[in-house]
Amino acid sequence: MITFTWYGTASVLLDINGEKLLFDPFFRMNDKLKKPNIKEFSEVDFIFNTHPHFDHLCDLPKILQVSKAKFYGTPTAYLRLETQGVDVENRVEILCPHDHIKTKNAEIFVHRTKHVKNDIWLVLRTALRILSKFQFKKALSVLKTHKQFLMGGDIVAFEIRAEGKTIVIFGSAGFDERAKLPKEIDFLIWPFQGRSNMNGYSKKIVSQINPKNVILDHFDNAFPPITNTIKTTKFAKIMKKECKNMKIITPKYKKPVVLQ
After folding, report:
1. Which CATH number fits the domain that encloses residue 43?
2. Least buried of 36, 128, 165, 245, by fewest C-beta within 10 Å?
3. What is the Cα–Cα distance from 51 to 55, expressed in whole angstroms?
4. pLDDT by residue (tens digit) across 97-142?
5. Helix (H, G, I), strand (E, B), or coil: what is residue 183?
6. Rounded distance, CA 57 to CA 38, Å?
C-alpha cells in the first residue's frame, strides 16, 4: 500500500509498505499554519530534494539530526548542506538527471525539469500586497533567506515506481520539453504556485503530461507576505472539462491519502 501525506508547501511523504520517502521538507514560516514536529520525521528512510531553494531545503539539517535517512539532492544542494555542517560524505548523495535509485520497496528515476518563471503580474501583485500590509521588514527577511539558497540551475523531478503505480513529483511548476516522462502516470504531484495565471498555465502542462490523477501542493501561504493562498477549486473544474477522467486532489495538512 502507498500513502501520500502533505506537510505543507512542497513537503510530501510517501509511505510504501512501511518504507518512508520524504520530498522537499520545509517547516512553513507562517505562525497561522500548522507545522509538523521534527520528531515526526525521525523514522524517514530516504529524503529527496528537487532543488535547493530555502522552502525546499533549509530545514533539512534538523531532520538529518533526528533521523538516519540518506539524502539525495543536486550538486548545489550538496554544497549548501556542506556549509551548514552536514556530514555530506556519509549522509548525502548527489543526483543528476537520468539517475536511477533502488530502495527496498521502490525505484526512483530522476528527470530534468525547470523552475517556474514568475510573471510580471505576479511580481507586481506581490509588491502591492507587501506595501498595503506594511510588511517591509518581514518581506526583506524572507528575501534575505532566499538569497542564501540560490538554485544554481539545478532542478529535477522524480518518478517513483512502486506497487504497480507510477508517481511523478515536481518541486516547481516548470517543465522541460526534453524530460522523458513515462506515458502512463498514475499520480502527478503538481506545485500550484508561481504564476498569476496558475489555472491556464497548469492546464497546458498537466494536459500534456496527462496523468490519471493530480495531487496539488505548494498552494499554501507558507511565507507571507511573499506568498498567499492559491485557490484550487477553479482549476479542478477546468480540468474536469478538459480531461473528464482525470481526478484533481487538493490534500489537507497531514491527512494521509491512499494512492489506489
Report:
1. 3.60.15.10
2. 245
3. 9
4. 999 999 999 999 999 999 999 999 999 999 999 998 889 999 999 9
5. coil
6. 14
The answer to whether residue 156 scores a pLDDT higher than 90 is yes
Count of positions (residues) in the chain: 260
Instruction: Indicate the helix (H) or strand (E) that contains 165.
Output: strand 165-169
Q: Which helix (H) or strand (E) segment is 119 a member of?
A: none
**Contact (Cβ atoms closer than 8 angstroms) between residue 173 and residue 201:** yes
Q: For 59-107, what is each residue's pLDDT tens digit?
A: 999 999 999 999 999 999 999 999 999 999 999 999 999 999 999 999 9
List CB contacts of 70: < 8 A, sequence separation 6 or more: 45, 46, 47, 91, 92, 93
Q: Is the dihedral of CA 72, 102, 180, 20 positive or negative?
A: negative
pLDDT at 192 over 90: yes
Alpha helices (H) in the chain, listed in sequence order: 54-57, 60-66, 75-83, 88-91, 120-133, 136-147, 198-209, 233-242
pTM (2 decimals)? 0.97
Determine the Cα–Cα distance for residues 121 and 39; give it in Å rounded to an integer. Answer: 40
Q: CA of 164: how far to CAs of 18, 160, 161, 184, in Å? A: 16, 10, 7, 11
Domain of 201 in residue numbering reads as: 2-258
C-alpha cell of residue 206: 498537466
Task: Fill in the DSSP letter of residue 59.
Answer: T
Coil/strand/helix, residue 33: coil
- Rounded to whole angstroms, the Cα distance separating 47 from 93 reads 10
Residue 4: beta bridge partners?
Answer: 14, 257
Total number of domains constituting the chain: 1
CA angle 112/118/122 to nearest 5° reads 155
d(C-alpha 181, C-alpha 10), whole Å: 20
Show the cell assigned to 129.
500586497
